[in-house]
Design goal:
By secondary structure, the protein is mainly β. The chain has a single domain, classed as Nucleic acid-binding proteins (OB fold (Dihydrolipoamide Acetyltransferase, E2P), Beta Barrel). It has one helix and 17 strands. The strands form five sheets. Strands 9-16-10-13-14-15-17 form a seven-stranded antiparallel sheet, with no helix packed on it. The protein has a four-stranded antiparallel sheet with strand order 7-6-5-8, with no helix packed on it. A hairpin with a 4-residue loop joins strand 14 and strand 15. The chain is globular and about 70 Å long.
Length: 277
Amino acid sequence: MALKNFNPVTASLRGTILIDRSELWKGKPVKALTVGKASTGGRNNHGHITSRFRGGGHKQSYRVVDFKRRRFDVPATVERLEYDPNRTAFIALIKYQDGELAYILAPQRLRVGDAVVASRRADIKPGNAMALASIPVGTIIHNVELKPGAGGKIARAAGQYAQLVGKDAGYAQIKLMSGELRVVRGECLATIGAVSNPDNSNVHIGKAGRSRWLGRMPHNRGVTMNPVDHPHGGGEGRTSGGGHPVTPWGKPTKGYKTRGNKRTDRMIIRHRNKGKG
């Protein structure tokens, strides 16, 4: 997909850059593959705000995407590519030989009419899913499982991918775009190719209203608040108070390590903050 630039007939259009989605399906999604989605406004079941600056936005229906790909050895044909408001990547509607429909993440270079299959051994083509143990070393993959049968968790956003760089003792080594190198069990499934819509990172929203359409409310900086509201607040003019940047609740930002999952530390060979070399 290409990018859309606009003539600067208004101030907001001067800097607007959007994704050209003219090649995508223009109709509604398959109703049987959608479920209702309530807007939380960033509030939990007690009505307390747990995610700040969320609210409003266009009403969305959730598309049920098959991240597990457990229909083995049943070929499917790509019926169409669709926009999904719930994610940055595009999705593909596939139709299995027995007539069943499903949504999957659309990889790059997948076209309408292409055949995809999930199998123990399949061709190395975008959209095909297979176990990591059966994929050749060096292959670009996405939608990678961390536990067999749990569904893909890694490399699902627009333009993301991982690379299979080695296999050893029933485990596969994968390198992520962040530079992290980790091992995953060889029985875990992954899909061939990189995720669609790689130009998403080049989008320039252009105006505040488009952020509101996406459900994002204005974000207030800590230094503009009063001391009662934020550690950065108060002072005559702009001031940080002489301390390091923190959240409203005092947790340090900018470099403070928040990872606390020691259980899976042994699965990570090289952490993402150790460099991408």
